Amino acid sequence: EVQLVESGGGLVQPGRSLRLSCAASGFTFDDYAMHWVRQVPGKGLEWVSGISWNSDTIVYADSVKGRFIISRDNAKNSLYVQLNSLRPEDTAFYYCVKDSWQHLVHPTLDYWGQGTLVTVSS
Amino acid sequence: DIQVTQSPSSLSASVGDRVTITCRASQSISSYLNWYQRKPGKAPKLLVYAASILRSGVPSRFSGSESGTDFTLTINSLQPEDFATYYCQQSFSSPWTFGQGTKVEIK
């Protein structure tokens, strides 16, 4: 059974940083691209960032480019995102999502974690 | 960026009804359109990918279709477990944008 478990969320002040982690199990982690998707409570889904199976290709949404850094450790079956220079509008649930494909080409997001809440507030 | 406009934002329907949800892309995206179901407190679930391919294990009352830049998710004979929010997502080009969501509520 595929499992994606996020951790690292919490309350953080504007301008500060936070690192989210995702522990993956139930599939061959280094065979698939991975993504972070976020959802402001009560609002829609926003794709944030994606990383190919071997980290060769990394893509960001414009809203987080230059502030967020996605990475993965295939030896640890883990996905990460470093959230820097956080803003109140970054407040959201952050979901770790598995892609159906190895490469970041036409992502099909086939498994999602339960999410971790990041609240940016003074 | 490719915009995806989803409609309606919400609808009320009864068990047994046929429901249709539409997404319109701002430009051609070939068949690169996926549909997801989201229930409160649960992770989103992939239903349909590549516009019309039903994911394994998804009930056959769900179907997807396309006509140019318009894409439709149809639920035939709505069941109690289908009351949820549905999202489309274009996977043609980055940033891979989602529609605004359609909340399907019980009439």
Give an overview in words.
The complex is a heterodimer of chains A (122) and B (107). Chain A has 122 residues and is an all-beta fold. Chain A has strands spanning 3-7, 10-12, 18-25, 34-39, 45-51, 58-60, 68-73, 78-83, 92-99, 109-112, 116-120. In chain A, the strands form two sheets. In chain A, strands 2, 4, 5, 6, 9, 10 and 11 form a seven-stranded mixed sheet that branches. Chain A is globular and about 40 Å long. The model of chain A has no long low-confidence stretch (mean pLDDT 97). Chain B has 107 residues and is mainly beta. Chain B is built from no helices and ten strands. In chain B, a hairpin with a 2-residue loop joins strand 7 and strand 8 (70-75). Chain B is globular and about 35 Å long.
Short overview:
The complex is a heterodimer of chains A (122) and B (107). Chain A contains no helices and eleven strands.
Distance between the termini of chain B: 36 Å
Shape of chain B: globular
Number of strands of chain B: 10
What ranges of chain B have pLDDT less than 50 throughout 5 or more consecutive residues? none
Q: Could you state the order of secondary-structure elements of chain A as H and E?
A: EEEEEEEEEEE
Shape of chain A: globular
The pLDDT mean of chain A sits at 97
Q: Write the element-wise H/E pattern of chain B from the N-terminal end onward.
A: EEEEEEEEEE
Number of strands of chain A: 11
Radius of gyration of chain A: 13 Å
Largest beta sheet of chain B: what is the strand line-up? 2-10-9-4-5-6
Radius of gyration of chain B: 13 Å
Low-confidence stretches of chain A at least 5 residues in length (pLDDT < 50)?
A: none
Largest sheet of chain A: 7 strands, mixed
Note the total helix count of chain A.
0
Features:
heterodimer, A: 122 residues, four-stranded antiparallel β-sheet, 0% helix, 50% strand, B: mainly beta, 10 strands, 48% strand
